[in-house]
Write a structure and sequence with these properties.
The two termini are 20 Å apart. Helix content is 54%, strand content 8%. The radius of gyration is 12 Å and the shape is globular. The protein is mainly alpha-helical. The chain has one domain. Strands 1-2-3 form a three-stranded antiparallel β-sheet.
Length: 71
């Protein structure tokens, strides 16, 4: 079942997670929304990880390791 996620374009937040700009917010919202059709259920923590990956703060390998720990 598809559950809409909370997006506030005025406050630049998704599920309460702040985004640096509207372009990044909309890009991530589209990417997350596309994955939700495949069964992905986002959480604020996963959004923060994804933003860290996009910003280069963590590597793909580090992301995979964190995902293994929480799975």
């Amino acid at each position: 079942m598809y559950t809409p996620i909370e997006i506030d374009r005025n406050a630049l937040t998704m599920m309460g997670v702040p985004f640096p700009d509207l372009e990044t917010l909309e890009s991530v919202a589209y990417e997350i929304g596309s994955n939700m059709y495949e069964g992905f259920e986002p959480t604020p923590e996963l959004l923060l990880l994804y933003l860290d990956l996009r910003a280069g703060k963590i590597s793909n390998k580090q992301l995979v390791e964190v995902l293994k720990q929480i799975a």
